[in-house]
């Protein structure tokens, strides 16, 4: 955590997206102090969710508390897959009833949203690429995320637009426009989709190394009124193993060249 | 080919889906004779498509001719990915313009549909799971396939509903209903989606080994009026390596137990 925060400062990055396990390792209070002293915004806390598991509630309330303490712009919600499916594990007793799992997510959200509102935390529903439907998120499209968010105030429940997850969607531009009109864009995240996909979880790449055309997506998000931080989130073992200063330098270069749109 | 045809006869399967490379290996005339003598229907010929490649036309006309000779119920169209992306190969010069690639597919279809109509062949547009959007099919949802088919007579352009590709889609039941109303269901294919996905291309499984709930999907396809053959298509190295008689026995058992719905 200290290294990541110092890296942001050294490279002039104004905001950082945090993951809960790193916050826990550093300690919540110490993390709050670190990011405050560094003058960084917390663009998001990742992640709440896994709402299809029986014991979702206590942990999600803790995640909301942490997001409040960190003054995170939102708490990213990865809603969970089919009940009983554990990511990376062989299938045991599972439910294959996908519509019911989606209903469970809606019910769990109804339990958590009032608490998030009370704590001033914005829950950001993240549709994940359909390849994760079974094990990580039964929420598969931006349209579906917006339908799920509809009953709540936009400042309490928003959506994440992550290029890796939504780039393929024939309705993506229409739904980004809708997300803007409904005031729901809580986060815009970028990374590339590698091809061939070397790994289902870690097959994400630095912008420019894959197949995504970032300009039109960034343009649509900007035209939809989103003016918050853009997060670069890359699940990739090579990126993680590389020298952090080189990774940030490459990231800034690619970001300027491929992601930013000027209107 | 001879082994597959004999296996269908031995196990009382009334129809077979053929792949073009196997037809080519056996010879088209000899394949026609084999399936006719065996009394088998050809439920589909797989595949035409890759319409985003510059040289798509001649090969697709040949595929249409072959489907006509085989009296196949349809020619499955895997429409192709982003121009320049070759499945399994590192990225070279590619186009990242996904909307343009989709437009190219529509234009190619406009060139091929009249020829298919003339030869009495039904083109069956297959939406592929979004994980294949870059390298195999920019056609990612059933709704999108139906939009693409809309300008043509249903007997000339239909759609394939493959459980592996569509099970995750929040709109799948609505779009199956629409496909029925529009008379477009050309093929219903089943196989399971394994979790964790062991391989992006070959991670398909025998029904019951993965996460798909077949009953509601089969029920929706039947309620939509589809009364054609149901194809079991499993891309899986273990299945391919196993004893064919055991595979067919397992397939029949799983099919009866998990796929068939009785109304």
From TrEMBL, chains A, B:
InterPro entries: IolE/XylAMocC-like, Xyl_isomerase-like_sf, Xyl_isomerase-like_TIM-brl. It comes from the Bacteria. Transmembrane segments: none annotated. Residues 9-243 form the Xylose isomerase-like TIM barrel domain. Coiled coil: none annotated. It holds the Pfam family AP_endonuc_2. This is 3-dehydroshikimate dehydratase.
């Amino acid at each position: 955590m200290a290294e990541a925060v110092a890296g942001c400062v050294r490279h002039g990055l104004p905001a950082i997206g945090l993951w809960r396990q790193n916050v826990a390792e550093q300690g919540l209070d110490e993390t709050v102090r670190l990011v405050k002293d560094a003058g960084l915004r917390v663009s998001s806390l990742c992640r709440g969710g896994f709402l299809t598991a029986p014991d979702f509630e206590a942990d999600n309330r803790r995640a909301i508390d942490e997001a409040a303490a960190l003054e995170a712009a939102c708490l990213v919600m990865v809603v969970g897959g089919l009940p009983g499916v554990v990511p990376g594990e062989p299938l045991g007793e599972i439910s294959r009833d996908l519509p019911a799992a989606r209903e469970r997510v809606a019910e769990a959200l109804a339990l958590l949203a009032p608490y998030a509102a009370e704590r001033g935390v914005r829950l950001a529903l993240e549709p994940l690429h359909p390849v994760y439907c079974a094990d990580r998120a039964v929420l598969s499209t931006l349209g579906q995320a917006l339908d799920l968010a509809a009953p709540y105030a936009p400042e309490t429940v928003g959506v994440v637009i992550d290029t890796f997850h939504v780039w393929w969607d024939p309705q993506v531009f229409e739904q980004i426009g809708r997300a803007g009109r409904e005031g729901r864009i809580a986060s815009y995240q970028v990374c590339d989709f590698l091809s061939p996909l070397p790994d289902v979880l870690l097959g994400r790449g630095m912008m420019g190394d894959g197949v995504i055309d970032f300009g039109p997506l960034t343009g649509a998000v900007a035209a939809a009124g989103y003016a918050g931080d853009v997060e670069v989130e890359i699940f990739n073992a090579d990126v993680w193993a590389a020298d952090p200063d080189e990774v940030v330098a490459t990231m800034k270069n690619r970001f300027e060249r491929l992601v930013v749109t000027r209107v």
